[in-house]
Amino acid sequence: MRIAEIHLTPVAIPDKPLLNCKGVHQPYALRTIIEVICDDGTTGLGESYGSIKALEGLRRAAPALRGLDPFHLHELKSRVAAALPEGGGINARTAVADHKLTDVVTSAFEVPCMDIQGKMLGRSVGDLLGGAVRETVPFSAYLFFKFGAHIGQDKDEWGEVLTPDQMVREAKKMVADHGFKSLKVKGGVLHPDLEIETMFKLREAFPHHPLRIDPNGGWTVETAIYVARRLEGVLEYLEDPVAGMDAMAQVAAATSIPLATNMVVLEFDQIAEAFTKRAVKVVLSDHHYWGGMRASTHLGKVCEVLDMGISMHSNSHLGITLAAMVHVASATPNLGYDCDTHYPWVGADVVEGAPFVFRDGALAVPRGPGLGVTLDRIRLAELAALYEVAGVRERDDTLYMKQFDPGYERRVPRW
Ligand SMILES: O=C([O-])C(=O)C[C@H](O)[C@@H](O)C(=O)[O-]
Ligand SMILES: [Mg+2]
Fold first, then answer.
1. Which of 214, 238, 288, 343, when mutated, tests ligand 1's pocket best, judged by the most ligand atoms within 8 Å of its CB?
2. How large is the ipTM?
């Protein structure tokens, strides 16, 4: 059995005007849907970034994968590395949010290859990753401050969320809709004192929910230490309060709150430094840039050995990604925190039916062979058509923010 064909379909998904320290989400988030078809007709599904750089990498690598045995995942990586242009090779960082293009592209094709393997064997991807150690995977509510509406559109169902009380209202809706048992706030948006007040109000409204805040490196070391001192005993972890490993180490030394990251530890080479400098206590995995689903479970093992915790990062995504995330989470024994997901913010999908319904904040691990999801061609065609008219080709939260506030400047740190 060999790979015969690969189809790459960029899609646009309607998104909400969610705020972060760089700006605001555009009306559409971009993804690429990947279909890998073997010579016997077995098809594997994947989902990755939709940026120009990622698409370019996927398009370059795809022809080099023809003839590959879908079980040969080491060869997959070497073929991908060889197919990417110099500078996009194994050691080069890229515009894909600073991730190695080789890892991004390898991962994008590893998922459909493992979907194919599972379909051939009649086993789930979780089984191929060592077997699920849990039948359901818990997620946290991913809470955002947000504008009430996109430019030129009517107010969305969530309305404006720009105050601590409005955030509590958003959290109540998220929890009522999906039953989440922990709460993550995207911070770095309002003045830190208001974000501290937000966390206290969430604590009051949800006395038993673990809480986290993630300003994406948007605070100075001084601000981060100030916030951490105020929130001692309130947070389960503080995610990327500051930018850079040394700054993280400075903050870590000043607080007992564990620091988590998806910004300073993005690849295996960075773990030793984070460990030595005691900069990070919890690493957020993400199969899209850690090199795939298998690599993500290996990351779990490394964290276990180093006595670090492991959690899971997300970006705006659809159901194929969610299936992969759930399988990885199910097969990572030491995953000790509820995973992130943007899924509740996305009002569309490309998979058939509604396979992902949160119960008590958790998703059942799909049982079907492979990933356990089926492509809905009508939905795929709709989102592919949306990509053509969306007018968005790159994520640029700052550029879009300038449409709301022409004087807005991106500053890191912001506060
Ligand atoms: O944990 C994180 O850093 C993220 O989820 C990154 C995302 O890009 C988030 O900041 C967003 O969607 O605005
Ligand atoms: Mg983060």
1. 214
2. 0.99
